[in-house]
Write a structure and sequence with these properties.
The complex is a heterodimer of chains A (111) and B (900).
Chain A lengths: L1 H19 L5 E2 H11 L11 H10 L3 E7 L5 E7 L1 H28 L1
Chain B lengths: L1 H11 L4 H25 L4 H12 L2 H12 L2 H19 L1 H30 L10 E4 L1 E2 L9 E2 L3 H10 L3 E15 L5 E8 L1 H7 L5 E2 L4 H4 L6 E4 L1 H8 L9 E4 L2 E8 L13 E4 L15 E6 L5 H18 L8 H6 L3 E2 L2 E2 H6 L2 H33 L1 H9 L4 H37 L14 H24 L6 H6 L10 H36 L11 E7 L8 H16 L4 E7 L9 E4 L1 E2 L12 E7 L3 H5 L3 E4 L4 H5 L4 E5 H8 L2 H4 L3 E3 L7 E7 L14 E5 L1 E5 L2 E5 L2 E8 L5 H14 L6 E5 H44 L1 H9 L4 H30 L15 H27 L3 H6 L2
Parallel strand pairs in B: 5-10, 7-9, 18-23, 20-22
Antiparallel strand pairs in B: 1-11, 1-13, 2-3, 2-12, 4-5, 4-8, 4-11, 6-9, 7-10, 8-9, 14-26, 14-27, 15-26, 16-18, 17-21, 19-22, 20-23, 21-22, 24-25
Helix pairs in contact in B: 2-3, 2-4, 5-16, 6-14, 6-16, 6-17, 7-11, 14-17, 14-19, 14-26, 16-17, 19-26, 19-28, 19-29, 20-25, 26-29, 28-29
The chains are: A alpha+beta (111), B alpha+beta (900).
Amino acid sequence: MAKERGDVLQGTLDMLVLKALELEPMHGLGITERIGQWSERLLQVGQGTLYPALYRLERQGLITSAWKVTANNRRARYYALTRAGRKQLADELVQWRRMSRAVNLVLDVTK
Amino acid sequence: MRRIRDEWRRLRGIGRRADVDARFDEEVRFHVDQQTEKNERAGMPPAEARREALAMFGGVAGAKDQARAEARPAWIDGTLRDLRHGIRGLRRTPVFTMLAVLTIAVGIGATTAVFTVLNAVLLRPLPYRDADRLVEVTHRAPGLDLPGGVVNLATTQLVSYREHNTTFEAIGLWTRFNVTVTGDGPPEQIRCLQVTHDTLQALDVVPASGRPFTPADEAPGSPDTILLAHGFSQRRFGGDPSIVGRTILIDSRPRQVVGVMPQDFRFLADEVDVLLPLQVDRSQLRLGGFNLRGVARLKPGVTIAAANADVARMIPGWLQAWPAPAGVSHAVFESARFTPDLRPLKEALVGDIGDVLWVVMGAVAVVLLIGCANVANLLLVRGEGRQQELAIRSALGAARGRLARALVIESLVLSLAGGLCGLLLAAAGVRGLVAYAADLLPRAHDIAIDPVALIFTLAVSVGSGLLFGLMSVVRRGRPDIVRDLAGAGGRTASQGRDRRRARHTLVVVQVSLATVLLVASGLMTRTFVALSHVDPGFTSPETLQLVRVTIPGAQVAEPERVLQMQRDIQARMAAVPGVASVAFASSGPLQRAGSGDPVEFEHRTYGEGQVPPIRLFKFIAPGYFQTIGARVIAGRDIDWSDLQADRPVAVVVESLAREAWGSPAAALGGRLREYPSSPWREVVGVVADIRDQGLHVPAPSTVYFPVLARNFGGSPVRIARSVAFVLRTERAGTETLLADLREVLGAINGNVPLAEPRTVAELHDGYLAQTSVTLMLLGVAGGMALLLSLIGIYGVLSHAAALRTREIGIRAALGARRASLRVMFVRDGLRLSLAGVIAGLAIALVLTRYMTALLFGVGAVDPMTYVVVAVVLTAAAALASYVPAHRATSVNPVEVLRAP
């Protein structure tokens, strides 16, 4: 049960990361904060889980990263969406909407 | 394409492990620091801010592991780690590693060397565009009594097929012979290829400079032209580009050079010096004259069967289109029942050598397998020592698959190292093979290690590694961890039973494979012995020197003058010191030359349209038989009085005499003729069969005519202008003799070169060459197989003895005699090897059937060979068993019992 939730969590987390990067590139902490604004529950499994997700997405070619210097003159790794990433995000949103519409329909029926 | 790039990126990961670690550390440091600052700004004290930041982050170590796993697929790291461990482990046991690598290197080296030769000679296509569409055009004529069965092409057929075919892009004729070039240097006999203009078209080759032959060159009465080969034009004319357009003298006739061929041009893998156009005079052509070779290029997509059908369709038209020669009826040709027999051109080139190469390839593959079995045995022994290590790893959670992977990777390291060394061995081996078998191998200059051979080596290395790796892994079975962790390997007899059985099986397999190879070697040995004892029909080939002298018509026109010149040469050669006797003939013994023509016997009647038997014709001067040591078993040789009186006479060989008249004596006085309008010729002598086409081929049925004959074959006089002088001399083969002969020839006619000097012994050995090369290679392979198998037996028994040292000590202490202990071991060894020998003999019975093409004088199931091999192998195995037995039983029982 927990495993299933973890998989769903992983897929959802990936989508949220991509969404977070839609507007502009940012570093890990920044992504955490933006997602945090949208969903507190995810952060209950720890901010650290973000980094494996980021590495996975980068390996899949959906995001890229580079060292940059912040306003405070510190070095941080900034992540940005690639074109493939944008496409993936768009596809996943379509999937998500379709699925939630189906779920809603079912729920409405049984009600 | 994108998919592949994505996969590659996925595989490569986002960086090296160390880099990923460093990056993660820095990122996390930044993250936690920033979060700490935020917490401080929110009012927390520094220590608590940091604690809170870490708590929000979650487990750093866990995140790091996960991040690492995401950064790169896990199996890459695992494999690299196994690789490093494997190499380290191998370096710790250098003796084992060297033995294993060496064994594999020898096996792979031999296999690669033979494969390289096989590939270059048999598998690689000919060096022409789309070479698989090239065919040789021949026919069969079941209605003719023809030795060999294959009929070459006639010019009339070319003209008919050229005009009416639907399946050929181009079809042309060719024939090879030697000509003499004079002027611009010393007279030289050179290799000539005579072709029609479409032969080069079919091959799709054009000259590098100048122009190719055109139909105009073939028309009768057109100016004589010639194409030069690159090598020849370099050699004789220094590569001078202005040679095109100049005139050179060929057989004392001037010819205009119209072009030079490209440097890499070879005709069917042989080099030629010049090319002449074949003149086709339609008005003079008659049916007959099947003495040219044909080559054609099929249209794309046309099969050989379709082309055969096309030619079959054209044959009746061809028969009708051309007149028969004078005195011969059309019906003769119709009753021959010509049928087309097109074959791929490569077959024409390769011939019999294919059989040899495949047999040798099989032999070295067997050696490689035996080598792999040895290495597998070594690995099994080594594995015993590592039981404890593997048990620990297994107890710590390593999956069976991972353990297996580690072992397979170790085997692959061994096999790839062995493959690399083997490649070096193969490079040397190929050079040696080519040098040793140069005469046998067509395309010898093309044979070298090439990318295909490299890929083959890689494939064989990986395959062998997997083979013996898996062999030593499969035996693992289910490791009993408790037992393995506790014991230090093998105090109880039952432990390692699986392993012992595996090793015994391997040894039996080795011995059986070695048996097969040794049987093959034995059969080749007997073949070689049988061939060397064939009575060739002449004596002492090493004292027979051959040289060829050709007197072209342009220099000496009248046949009688040619004969006189030949007699002059003969007389002067006889005066050279050391020369016992000289004779000359159209070709010497074993020179495989002569024409096949029909012979009519007077006492037989031939129906309308029936073709008399085709026999080999040779033209000799008197004294030929005596010089070569042939036995005249009835009647007499042709002599000079016959020639002076122009008597129509002939000499036949024994087999023909028996066939036509029943016995040599009855043949004397019999009459035959070679042409309907010729006079009947009287048989004045019968000579014992003389080998000509090789040693394993029976002597051809031959008729010998005088070197100058009147009313022969439809012409008033026939003279053999190109003759081989045969000299009986102890100095045969020496340069000084050849120098003397050149001097003699130069004194008589400066424009006639001495050509093709060789001794009959060289030809004789040349025919033996195929057998001797096969024998040598099989013998080497068999020897290696035997050695490796004996090492295998020795190894197994040594190891078994070492394991049973305590048992031996106990038995000895209880009173067993050393001799009976040794017998116990030797019996074990013999049991193994007997099982192997019996299995091997059974396999050999099946496999040697494929060798029959190479055998002579011995069957594939020759009892003597099989018995000898069985005895030798068993004896050797007994010896290999005795040595470890002796060592093991020489222990002091007290020491053994006292040892832990």
